[in-house]
Automatic annotation (TrEMBL):
This is YlqD protein. Pfam families: YlqD. It comes from Psychracetigena formicireducens. It comes from the Bacteria.
Length: 136
């Protein structure tokens, strides 16, 4: 019988416990710090450019506009992080929470349902240890 292996996405979920909540919160805080640092870097660079480089008013306005847009994007990301913090805080201990997607292989054979083989796979972990594998 003919068979082939193909790549597929595997949903990774974790059993919620205090250590997972703490880890997720640390990741969110790190992301927020990175965004804050990037916003400050943008402000500094734009101010430096405006002071040090001779330019006309149009160029100056274009730089300010771009910086404001990027600051707004950063603020939107910070709002999303805040929503994620609320979500993590509200997670019930023992519940299942999706934490990412990893790549895996699926063995396909003639006569099998392709969509079931490539779409329906998830791994549930607790403290990094595989608890369950759901395939199909």
């Amino acid at each position: 019988m003919s068979k082939i292996f193909v790549k597929r996405s595997v949903l990774l979920k974790a059993v919620v416990d205090e250590s997972l909540k703490k880890e997720l919160m640390n990741q969110l805080q790190d992301n927020q710090k990175k965004i804050d640092m990037e916003i400050e870097r943008l402000k500094y660079q734009s101010n430096k450019l405006l002071i040090e480089s001779p330019m006309d008013i149009r160029e100056s306005m274009a730089i300010r506009k771009r910086v404001e847009e990027e600051k707004r994007d950063g603020e939107l990301l910070k709002d999303q992080i805040l929503q994620k913090v609320k979500e993590v805080n509200s997670l019930d201990l023992g519940s299942i929470y999706p934490i990412g997607v990893i790549e895996g292989l699926a063995e396909l054979k003639v006569g099998e349902n392709l969509w079931n083989k490539v779409n329906n796979c998830e791994i549930i972990i607790k403290d990094g240890i595989i608890e369950e594998i759901h395939d199909q």
